[in-house]
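Weekly sync, protein design subgroup
Attendees: M.S., D.O., the rotation student, P.L. (late)

Item 1: inverse folding check
M.S. brought a backbone from last month's batch and wanted to see whether the design step gives back something sensible before we order anything. D.O. pointed out we never logged the input encoding, so this time it goes straight into the notes. Structure tokens as presented (103 positions):
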């Protein structure tokens, strides 16, 4: 079953909104002394498409801005996703076919 553009956009909006809310809740929990969300969960939600929501939540709520290695891992996830999107765009446009003969 092919994935439509509308389905992909809806998924990305949902995962980014969820990730943003996770950062809000974790910041609120940190201030209130409540049980926190694991860093693994925050990074996983960013990795599976919510990196924009994670970066926005991190900046807006000033949450985990100096925490290492969390900060570096989140930046690497964003970089990986950016490279993946660029590669998929080139592949979908047929631009990578020119390189097929080189290998």
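Designed sequence read out in the meeting:
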């Amino acid at each position: 079953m092919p994935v439509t553009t509308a389905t992909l956009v809806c998924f990305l909006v949902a995962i980014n909104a969820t990730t943003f809310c996770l950062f809000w809740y974790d910041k609120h929990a940190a201030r209130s002394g409540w049980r926190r969300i694991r860093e693994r969960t925050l990074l996983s939600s960013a990795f599976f498409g919510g990196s924009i929501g994670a970066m926005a939540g991190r900046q807006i709520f000033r949450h985990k801005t100096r925490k290492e290695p969390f900060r570096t891992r989140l930046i690497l996830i964003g970089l990986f996703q950016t490279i993946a999107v660029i590669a998929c765009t080139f592949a979908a446009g047929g631009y990578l076919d020119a390189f097929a003969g080189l290998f």
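Discussion: DSSP finds three helices and no strands in the chain. Residues 5-32 form the longest helix (28 residues).
Action: P.L. to compare against the previous round before Friday.
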